[in-house]
Specification:
mainly alpha; two-stranded antiparallel sheet; 4 helices
Length: 109
Amino acid sequence: MAAQQPHDLNCLTIAELEKHAEQRMDKQTRDYYNEGADSGSTLLENSQAYSKYRIRPRVLRDISLIDTSCPLFGTRSPLPMGVAPTAMQCLAHPDGEAATARACRDAGV
């Protein structure tokens, strides 16, 4: 794995994520993540679904009262987000799945 580099919080698209992977991961690791199982149909569908969403900046708006929380499984979640089980995250980061679990815990997800 390549040396750790600081996070780029401006990485918002799949194309930007792939560019970062090119700089941060060795070829074998990139190939593993870029391959889809079987015919790659799920990978294609996920990329197409992600491309439907746009981040629309709303500048000069009062955001002091915005509440992103929602009820989820009988409790209030601060952010309507979930994380699906995945595997082989240690290829991308030495802490792998444990880091994802800690980040979710810390964010209340």
